[in-house]
Model the fold of this input.
Amino acid sequence: MKKLQVIFLVALLVIIVGLSVIACLQLKTSSPALWKNPANYHAPLVEVIPNISLLIQMANFLFLLFALNLILFRPIRRKLQERREKFAGYKSDIEGLTARAQTQAERLDDLLDQARRQGLQERDVLKKTAQDEEKTVVDAAAEQMQAAVAEVRAQVKTELASARDELEGQVEAYSREVAEKILGRSL
Done:
């Protein structure tokens, strides 16, 4: 397709140059007095004579305008329009992706907040459970200690009672010995 357009453009340029040469030749031949003796002519050097060459130049211009529009300007405008549409599509894709990313970021923030709250609740539950367990362990240890203290007290009481009984049995013997030592004689 592009080779055909290039060939058509070259042919068009050859036709345009040919028509321009023909128009110039007609302009030169239309006023021979002007070309042979310019001193006889006091008007401007370019004189437009309304003959067939003017119509050929106008047709040449219109044909060139039509051909350039067909071959050059329309494809360029089409490509520019395609480019605008492509960039508009890219822009809408970017806006859509940006909105989607924003939505996902907000969702992620909500999930993080929810996870934090859940973590704090679980921490509080675990802390309460640990405190309850600690209290249970401390109470059990206190009970064991009280039981051990009560056992030791009971043991000390029994030992004290047995020592007291033993000493009470020996008090008479000791008092006799003390009295004998004090009196210096036996009783």
The radius of gyration is 63 Å.
